[in-house]
Specification:
This protein has helices at 17-28, 42-46, 60-69; strands spanning 8-12, 32-36, 50-52, 77-80. It is an alpha/beta fold. It has a four-stranded parallel β-sheet with strand order 3-2-1-4, covered by helices on one side. The structure holds NADP nicotinamide-adenine-dinucleotide phosphate (NAP).
């Protein structure tokens, strides 16, 4: 993406790992980053992006609170990064295991 294509991107699970690096790169490229986390980190705070703390994707209450906090906002991109890697086969894909990919 170029600076001329600046957009607002929501990164869910941005306090560390891939989510943090995606947030950092998006910010570097001039995009408006809205980051969420269960607990923030020094690295995330150092990015100086909009941070929504206490967002656990397995907790309906905190997801609803995020939805309310972002009501009316236009989001051009959504990266749902939060989760844990479970090395299971996708063939066949058991949809019942998908929610378990988030702690
Ligand atoms: N790294 C790889 O090689 C690889 C390969 C394939 C897929 N993936 C997927 O890519 C994503 C990120 O990988 P990563 O290596 O960056 O993992 P990571 O370092 O373990 O980071 C996981 C992130 O997800 C957050 N998270 C986990 N459960 C959450 C929940 N219930 N609610 C909100 N946030 C939650 C964590 O927050 P906390 O700090 O609060 O735990 C953390 O920010 C994961 O979904 C992983 O399965 C990674």
């Amino acid at each position: 993406m170029t600076a001329a294509m600046t957009s607002t991107v929501l990164v869910v699970g941005a306090n560390r790992g891939i989510g943090l690096e995606l947030a950092r790169e998006l910010k570097k490229r001039g995009h408006d980053v809205v980051a969420t986390c269960r607990e923030t980190s020094e690295a995330l705070e150092a990015l100086e992006v909009e941070v929504h703390r206490g967002v656990d994707v397995t907790d309906d209450t905190s997801v609803t609170a995020l939805r309310k906090a972002l009501a009316g906002r236009v989001l051009d991109g959504l990266i749902v990064n939060s989760g844990i890697l479970r090395r299971t086969s996708l063939d066949p894909l058991d949809l019942a295991t998908v929610p378990k990919s988030s702690r």
